[in-house]
Amino acid sequence: MKKEISAVYSGSFDPPTNGHLDIIIRASHLFPKIIVAVTENINKKYTFSLRERIVLLQKITKGLKNTKIVSFSGLLADYVEQINSFVLIRGLRAISDFEYEFQMALMNRKLNKKIETIFLMTDQRYTFLSSSMVKEIAILGGDTKDFVPKYVEKELKKRVVDLSKRNNEK
Ligand code: ADP
């Protein structure tokens, strides 16, 4: 392995879950530096703003010294060129992720042939976990403490209250 190699882990992280954190920790043991790249897609509606998702990730990765949180918009294949970092980390939960991830990895390689995608398997406790499912549980009043880090749990609770207040005012 080239010593100086850093790896990029991209995603929406809306919000980051224990599954995401598990992948970040695993990757941080394999590479000297992990760049967690938060996507901002103007066509997508997020529960947490870009700034909020960055802060959530900063808080939950505070103990990991080789992790940096950044944001990007546009094509990941272009962004990695700008930062000269061509290893992409993706998390795999179940076979159902595979087809989409496989397609994406090949497309990224087609767009930028220097890109290499590495898949890490999450802890089996998190195989069923997704940001959208966690949000759904929070909105329906369920307990999310086993699914997201404590700080995220607190912020998610607040956000759900704010959203329901806003909906009741309509
Ligand atoms: P997007 O789907 O918009 O890229 P996500 O934030 O949903 O962003 O996911 C980012 C990455 O994290 C993807 O590789 C995804 O497969 C992975 N991931 C999401 N949830 C989990 C989980 N529970 N365990 C492992 N990997 C996960």
Biggest β-sheet: count, sense, barrel? Answer: 5 strands, parallel
Alpha carbon gyration radius: 16 Å
Domain module count: 1
Identify the CATH homologous superfamily.
HUPs
CATH architect. name: 3-Layer(aba) Sandwich
Find the count of extended strands (DSSP E, 2+ residues): 5
- Please tally the helical runs, counting DSSP H or I stretches of 4 or more residues: 6
Strand fraction = 15-25%
Kindly provide the name of the CATH class.
Alpha Beta
Low-pLDDT sequence parts: none
Bound molecules: adenosine-5'-diphosphate
Estimated helix fraction: 40-55%
Side-by-side strand order of the widest sheet:
3-2-1-4-5
Question: H/E series, N to C?
Answer: EHEHEHEHEHH
Provide mean pLDDT, rounded: 93
Which term fits the overall shape? globular
Summarize this structure as a short list of keywords or feature phrases.
170 residues, alpha/beta, Rossmann fold, five-stranded parallel beta sheet, globular, binds adenosine-5'-diphosphate
Produce a short descriptive summary.
The chain is of the alpha/beta class.
Note down, in words, how this protein is organized.
There is one protein chain. With 170 residues, this protein is of the alpha/beta class. It has one domain: HUPs (Rossmann fold). It contains six helices and five strands. It has a five-stranded parallel sheet, with helices on both faces. The protein starts with 5 loop residues before the first strand and ends with a helix. The mean pLDDT is 93. The structure holds adenosine-5'-diphosphate.
